[in-house]
Amino acid sequence: MKYVYDLHKIMIANNLILVYEGEFTQEITKSVLAMAERNMDAIGEIANVKRKVFNVMVECLQNIVKHAEDLNEKDEDGLKNNAIFMLGKQVNEYIVTSGNPVRNEVIPNIQGKLEKVNALDKEGLKELYKEIIKNTEISEKSGAGLGFVDMARKSGEKLGFSFEPINDEFSFFTLRVTVPRDNS
Amino acid sequence: MEIINLEGTEETPKVVLDKDNGIFEISGRSLPEDVSAFYGQVLQWLDKYAAAPNPETHFIFKLEYFNTASSKIILDVLSKLEGISGAKVYWYHHDDDEDMEEAGREFSDIVDGVPFEFKTY
Predict the structure, then answer these.
(1) What is the mean pLDDT of residues B76-98?
(2) Which member of A16, A20, A180, B7 has the lowest number of beta carbons within 10 Å of its beta carbon?
(3) Is residue B66 part of a domain?
């Protein structure tokens, strides 16, 4: 049972206030959001920061839900319910981190969108947001990267990401978004 | 004309569309998984309304939060209003919610055929 204590220590050491691992659905998204909101309310977090964290969390969680459907339908690889979501709280910032398996062939697309977003400043992100929203159909499942643009705007920082190989077909995509606490 | 009156939930906004009483409002939170399913009825209602609108249509958006999927369909709603003469958007935001104010200003830049008035609450 030592792993329980170890896990507890890891969470404390990394200032993780919320960790969820497993299946991601819209219902679970709502529960995770409610827990995070309660947590931020309890410490009296200011409304502006709370809204930005909520915003980033929604985009992050809904990305996972949406793209879990792209994985093997029969789940022969056992990867479908294998995603993780974490919320960390430091003195100066909140850190929203997610990890989920993606097909190797979609990596260049995801990476391209993230690099494009990271290369832009505040004004550039605003223009990209407008351009995408004007030219995208709702039915387009990928969302054309509007979620990443929105996360970057709410964050004000670069989006952190990595792809860790799982096997020939899949990699584990990790996304890290920070939200400053003292952005009054 | 039929009235749409939907109570808000933790993931969908309150919607009131009432031609006879001149009430047009979308408020609260909008983060449904399937935005098309939720907003389809709103867009259909507006198509019918546009055929015989009131002389004035004061459309209130009083959103606390919306996800990026909703933002695209909110733009669709606003685009419908562009085609209705006498339509005006009242965009509400919390006093300290600059992001919501900016979102409204961006929408008003894109949808230039309908006037916007910004209000705080």
Answers:
(1) 94
(2) B7
(3) yes
Report the Cα A167 to chain-centroid distance in Å: 22
Q: Does B71 touch chain A (CB under 8 A)?
A: yes
Query: In angstroms, rounded to a whole number, what is the distance separating the alpha carbons of residues A77 and B7?
Result: 42
Residue A179 to chain B, least CA–CA distance (Å):
14
Domain that holds residue A137: 2-180
One-character DSSP codes across B61-83: EEEEEE-HHHHHHHHHHHHHHHT
Q: pTM of the entire structure?
A: 0.90
Radius of gyration of chain B (CA): 13
Phi-psi region of A44 (alpha: psi -120 to 50; beta: other; left: phi over 0): left
Residues of A within 8 A of B37 (CB-CB) are: none
Question: What are the pLDDT digits (tens) for A121-167?
Answer: 999 999 999 999 888 765 555 555 789 999 999 999 999 999 999 99
CATH number of the CATH domain containing A18: 3.30.565.10
- Which residues, in sequence order, are CB contacts of A45 under 8 Å at separation 6+? A53, A181
Q: What SS3 state is found at B98? A: helix
Which residue from A minimizes the CA distance to B36? A138
The CA-atom distances, in angstroms, between A115 and each of A109, B58, B67 are 10, 41, 22
